[in-house]
Every structure is written in structure tokens, then in C-alpha cells.
Design goal:
Length: 177
């Protein structure tokens, strides 16, 4: 204890020698919980999201409002938790190493998607908003992501970090690291 009855902070050497642990994600009891969350989240959340789309395509104010409430309150959070738990399980087992490069360039890929699809869908570009169906939109998104998976891996092999990630690191760490 310090002179005012407060606990003294650990010495810098002690802090530097402590290693981070995989206390939460690696334990078997957490894997079982993650599997349950993934199964329930995707198993219930995905059909509910499909139901929301069907309900919202119907006519009537009450039906649309009911669809929005269902989406906000139940369907989207369930699917989000399920996908997140499934992602953690995939990452732990290294079942999706092809996603690692895209994850390391996440900000760069997000900004690229925003720029490409704003140019595709808004009037200053191709103006395709409202002219293509949902299936075409999903197909375009998957095609762009497939290209980004290949380019991300190539980019990291050559440069080690994305351009936006480098600027962000420079801005936050000031060139240290």
C-alpha cells in the first residue's frame, strides 16, 4: 500500500513481463457456450430475418411496423450473436485462414466497399439503386469481397499493412511501433 492507503501500481518491469492469456476464448467450457450461441443465433436468427423480409414486402402500416420491431428487437441481435460466436470458433480452429488478410485490412476493405458501391448505386455513378434486385446486390457484394480476399493477401505479402491502416497507426501512435 502507498502512503495514502492506495495500492501502488505495478513496477514497469513487472507489467512488461506479464503475458496476455487466452483466458476466455480458449477454454473448453467457453467453446461449448460459443457453439450453443452460434447454433441458436444462426438457427433462429436467420429464419427470423427471412421472415422480416417477407413481412416487410407485404402491404399495410401495421405489418411493416411489426416487421421493424421484430427485426430490431429479436432477429438482428440473434443473428449477430450467432455469426460472432461462429466467427470466434472459426478463428480459434484456424478453419478460415483465408479471411485473416481481409481482417488485417478491414478498414481499407470497408472504405473500398463504400466507394465502389456508392459509385455503382448512386446517381453520380451508374445509378443502379432501385434497378437491381436483392439477389444481384448480394452477388455484387460477394464478388467484390472475393476480389478483396485475393488482393488483401497479395497486399499484405508485399507491404505488411494497408495504406489506411498505416495512416491510422501513424496518427494514433505517432510513428512509434
Amino acid at each position: 500500500m502507498g502512503r495514502h492507503g492506495l495500492r501502488e501500481p505495478a513496477a514497469p518491469a513487472a507489467r512488461a513481463s506479464s503475458r496476455p492469456t487466452r483466458r476466455h476464448s480458449g477454454a473448453p467450457e467457453h467453446r461449448a457456450r460459443l457453439r450453443t450461441l452460434a447454433r441458436v443465433g444462426v438457427g433462429v436468427g436467420l429464419p427470423l430475418n427471412v421472415l422480416v423480409v417477407v413481412v416487410q414486402s407485404a402491404e399495410g402500416f401495421f405489418v411493416v411496423v411489426a416487421g421493424q420491431v421484430l427485426l430490431i428487437a429479436l432477429a438482428a441481435p440473434l443473428l449477430t450473436v450467432g455469426l460472432a460466436a461462429g466467427g470466434v470458433l472459426l478463428y480459434e480452429r484456424r478453419r478460415a485462414p483465408w479471411l485473416e488478410a481481409a481482417g488485417r485490412l478491414a478498414l481499407n476493405n470497408y472504405l473500398t466497399q463504400s466507394l465502389v458501391f456508392s459509385a455503382v448505386f448512386y446517381s453520380y455513378g451508374l445509378g443502379l439503386f432501385g434497378r437491381v434486385g436483392a439477389a444481384t446486390g448480394v452477388g455484387l457484394a460477394l464478388a467484390l469481397f472475393a476480389v478483396q480476399l485475393v488482393v488483401s493477401r497479395w497486399w499484405l505479402a508485399r507491404f505488411g499493412a494497408g495504406p489506411v491502416e498505416r495512416v491510422l497507426r501513424l496518427a494514433t501512435h505517432g510513428g512509434r511501433r
